Amino acid sequence: MKIVAPPEGALLVHEVGLRDGLQMEKLVVPTEQKIAWIEALLDSGIDGVQLGSFVHPEKMPQMADTDRLFHHFTDRGTERERPVLSGLVLNEKGLERGLACGVEVFCMGVSASETHSRKNTGMSIEDANRRILAMAREAKAAGRYVQVSVQSAFGCGYEGPVPMERVLSIVRTYLDAGLASLSLADTAGHATPDRAEDLFARVRVLDPSASWACHFHNTYGLALANCYAARRMGVRIFETSVAGLGGCPFAKVAGGNTCTEDLVHALQRDGLRRDVRLDALLDVARDVARFFGRDMAGSVYRTGPVPVPAPVLAQRS
Amino acid sequence: MKIVAPPEGALLVHEVGLRDGLQMEKLVVPTEQKIAWIEALLDSGIDGVQLGSFVHPEKMPQMADTDRLFHHFTDRGTERERPVLSGLVLNEKGLERGLACGVEVFCMGVSASETHSRKNTGMSIEDANRRILAMAREAKAAGRYVQVSVQSAFGCGYEGPVPMERVLSIVRTYLDAGLASLSLADTAGHATPDRAEDLFARVRVLDPSASWACHFHNTYGLALANCYAARRMGVRIFETSVAGLGGCPFAKVAGGNTCTEDLVHALQRDGLRRDVRLDALLDVARDVARFFGRDMAGSVYRTGPVPVPAPVLAQRS
Fold first, then answer.
1. In this predicted model, what pLDDT tens digit does every residue of B276-317 receive, in sequence order?
2. What 3-state DSSP class applies to A256?
3. What confidence category does residue A108 fall into, taking pLDDT thresholds of 50, 70 and 90?
4. What are the counts of helices (DSSP H) followed by strands (DSSP E) for chain B?
5. CA-based Rg of chain B, rounded to a whole angstrom?
6. Are A71 and A99 in contact (CB under 8 A)?
7. In this complex, which of A229, A252, A305 lies closest to B228 when CB atoms are compared?
8. Is B266 within 8 Å of A308 when comparing Cβ atoms?
9. A308/B218 Cβ within 8 A
10. Which domains can be identified in chain B, with CATH numbers?
């Protein structure tokens, strides 16, 4: 299962725009439109696609079709190898729904900010932690994969700085429970490359064999810089959002997520992930911009990739 | 002279938006408006401000008042310590004008792309190099400081990849001529953090005592990431543009420059350059956006800086 335990040397892209992107948008995307985007993302060669979250449909109408999306993509079987399908769960009811509709990787997390935790889940960090551990056990017992994350790990729109010790403490709780696929999420976009290096260095020594993902928001323009810093510290999974969709509606200031196609474009410039079809990602990004009728945060879907110079034609004699 | 020979450990900001930013804009900024922006930039605590370039006024009406701007700011003397005033020169006529109006640091450069060089200056790289060396000698003989740069050092909108050996060769020419304040400019925005680290590592070993600046464009979203990579390799001067103004009209694809206030915001998050008044930079950026009547590329002038949480008030008994 690549996106929870990446092969040696791999750099993996986990698209979360359908969840962390769309939940920010007022205009509800019809299921058929989501399916078209997901199809294209699955075909592009990235490694995981998060189809949605399992929240109460009335609380977030944008996510009301999450179960239907999973049924659509998993009921067809796995006749061909395709990226992993992940879903975000916040509570037991969500877990139950996710188990019933074929979620392959359950993403779940706790905020390192007490205020963000209460606003997002209605629970204290401690209660949320207890619940996550129980849910993770249940998902694993059902044969599914689990990725746990620490949200607001680099700071909180409500509380400001988040003590690093609180992040480390949540990480230790996860690791002690045998959860070795983890993510640090910069929900409000407060991270800098220096802070990203520092925090990832500290969590990695807690268990060098654990697998780490990073999830940055571009609120202050640093998402790609932070991805490079995280990569330098051994992080190999990048949670990104096509067209740079996104943000967390419960964080006071939230820009878009790291832009999927901008990251892939940068990696390809360095000779990495040449297997991903950048043009397919750019098509989705352009279509997302068309759907919402506005410029999205991503750069490359507007500029086009760095042009390849035209080959010098042999002169006719 | 800080911005050509930075003190040990310093990280310096050289604002180039009035030149590399405005030359991209069709709407000519009135001199009085430029003066107001320059005043605010000089007061903000950054280290250098480039007032304009000395090109033919008919070729670039936006730069027609460069001499007047220098006279305005230098004729008042140096009653208080203020940032360095720099100007870009492309030819002998420009040098003559710059010497007459009080330019403190002459910025001049050669493109590492033959096509870009010919389009930008009408000269081959070799001819442009020869001219730069002669101009630099003359400026230094007149007691002025000189910074030389290699443009299109990371790739070219016309030619695509630029051989690293060509960049190194130009750098060697400069160093051999005793020019020890240098800059690598990513005119088309083709750099990535990996490439920035690689190229700056290679040029720095040619003369470890030389001073290096970096000049990135955000065409593909990587300007801040590249600044961090350059900083890691010992680069200490950042050429940036307020509000992210800019781009080179002679490069086929050109996004804005690295955004001054976004970089300062990021540095301040890491405890660096706390002496710069970020609020003053944000005021200029907002004013620039108002003037041009559109959203500029910068992030922080729109989001505001990472909020400092309200202090917990002592409870009344």
1. 999 999 999 999 999 999 888 899 999 999 986 655 444 343
2. coil
3. very high
4. 11, 8
5. 19
6. no
7. A229
8. no
9. no
10. 12-296 (3.20.20.70)
